[in-house]
Amino acid sequence: MLDTLRRTIQEVNRAPDLPRALSIIVSRVKQAMVVDVCSVYLLDSELDQIVLMATDGYNSDAVGEVRLRAGQGLVGLVARREEALNLDDASDHPAYVFTSKIGEEPFHGFLGVPIIQHRHVLGVLVVRQRERRRFAEQEETFLFTLAAQLAGAISHAGASGEINRLLQQSDESRYALKGASATPGAAVGVARVVYPMANLEAIPDRPVDDIDAEIAEFRAAVAAVERDMRSMSARMVDSLPVEDIALFDALILMLRSENLMGGTIEGIRAGNWAPGALRNTIAEHVDAFEDMEDPYLRERASDVRDLGRRILQHLQSIHPVARKFEPDTILVGEDVSASQLAEVPVNLLVGVVSARGSSASHVAIIARALGIPAVMGIDDLPVGRLDGQELVVDGYQSRVFVRPSQAIRNEFLRLQREEAELSTELQGLTRLASETRDGVRIPLYANTGLLTDITPSLRCGADGVGLYRTEIPFLIRDRFPSEEEQRRTYRQVLEAFAPAPVTVRTLDIGGDKMLPYFPVEEDNPFLGWRGIRISLDHPEIFLTQVRAILRANAGLNNLQLLLPMVSGVGEIDSAVGLIRRAHEELLDEGEELVYPKIGVMIEVPSAVYQIPAMAARVDFFSIGSNDLTQYLLAVDRNNSQVAELYDALHPSVLRAIHHVIQEAHAVERSVSVCGEMAGDPVAALLLLGMGVDSLSMSAAGLLRVKWVVRSFTQSQAQKLLDEVWELEEGSAIRALLNASLEAAGLGGLVHAGR
Ligand code: PEP
Ligand code: MG
Description:
This protein is an alpha/beta fold. The chain has four domains: 2-167, GAF domain (Beta-Lactamase, 2-Layer Sandwich); 176-195 and 324-421, Glucose Oxidase, domain 1; 200-318, PtsI, HPr-binding domain (Enzyme I, Chain A, domain 2); 443-752, TIM Barrel (Alpha-Beta Barrel). α2 packs antiparallel against α4 (137-156) and α6 runs antiparallel to α8 (258-269). Magnesium ion (MG) binds next to α23.
């Protein structure tokens, strides 16, 4: 036996991948133990199921098909109890569940052992005998030893990813199409493919005789599109919050804009017919938007294209044929537009899938507001073959299953149901305090940028604003805003939340946030001229902004100032010097303004190790985990090539954050976390354990995090943190945290945080 064990383990370790490792195990064990069947089941932690992954003896078609809910059947029992089960006749046992798919009718003897790694059950190794057979103790230990070895190989291969790949290999129809980004949620439905309405690019130039008549026709077409837009917006009014309805108003404004109207009319006056002149104006606009650095503005190009097509349609008098939509519609297209979405009655729409676009696309923004999952940017989407097909949209993992297997379909239906229950439950938390079970209060703040963020943030019960990204109002203009323009914008945010605190971050441009009117050419923008570096090199920009912020605070006094991208104390000294100067100047001008609290973003590794020196200069810290993760791991936060390596739960990132909190608390400074991880329920749980003073996140995730805060004690979170320090990889840490949320009855959040 020992010899077989050694040889089998050697072979398994040499196996190039998990599937081959599993197949070696099942066939060697079957031979060595002289049994009729050997199988391996693995835990699919994403779906919380145990899946048959390899077998020698059962029907091989059942691989990937046989799925048991955790805890179900004898295999589930072994996994749950984490101990071996040795039965001479399986069918006598009360937990036995008969599974016809595997062809198990003739088998009686059963021995199953758990496959455990780092205290987590990864799966179950099972042998079966046709006859009744009670396995000997030594056979049981043989199987145990093998299972322990298998555990190493499985976790080494990254179990859950391999499970998916393995299943995808076994049946084409389970193939998941991967998108670049998504809005969260799950949906099961039927694809309805939408096509661009009219092909503007194919329109030729054509001379026109009656210029005035042509202009009149163009104006009539624009007016008709405006009417269409208004009726679409009216149709959505009951389903969308006002600020999202405003997006339709923005389209109407764009439609009426001098550039679009005037540009086309000018083209007609120059002798081109309306469709030709329109094509040129739209193309110019699309180019201008596509050249923009800011991803949000870049996405506006498809809105312009959509408007152009709609005007053309009216010019050509091919009015859109009203389509009939069925329940559970999943809208699919090359470049699904916001207006195409608006044409589907909201009660019939369950998902959106688009080959182009990103989560910043207008259509995705509306989908998110409606709570509809959307997967965007699937390069290889076979649009032509999808109409009428059943689809599963997995907005958590940016993927779409075409013709899903029964198991996947059911799983997502269940997820959908659970989500509906979850969001109803979450609404009830809006007015409740963000407080742990042992009475520790952790204020939850909102991250804002656009004024349209204010309403959702207030509506979800945010305790204030933890990060107001002031570069956003700069990004959506075509020149630097004046001091007075800035003051008015900031005032609206400060006023909306007063007396709750609003942390206003000074301009953080550079990196991936380039102002169209202040271009910076660099080989390495993320390591270059960014954030405070630009502000200090351009004191005139910084002083104007600081004056506007301080003035906006007049009489409210709920302002806190935050400095981005600080890498050393010299920058703080210079910035504070300028802030003091601005404050003094304003006092000299007769304004009665308080001097605000000043904080520093900790997002550059050098800042992590200078907390005491920085604390001597400022009042508080806010950890920008997005950049801190990017700089600590040397992983570009926007590069999809290395997206898998980008992990805020990487042990080194967690250690850095913990270090900052401890050092800051030692000198009595508070610490907030305002990067994306603050809105991830599992990460928030860890931050709670580290003793973070507050969290700031986008409004969409706030109630989920509040639920976590209210469901644990801080000492439970601390205990969990102790366990996390034992783990060496982010994936293991996430798995542990997911398990803790599940154990606390917050399983629904596990999907949300993925
Ligand atoms: C961060 O880096 O975590 C952060 C909050 O700042 P931004 O995402 O705006 O760079
Ligand atoms: Mg940052």
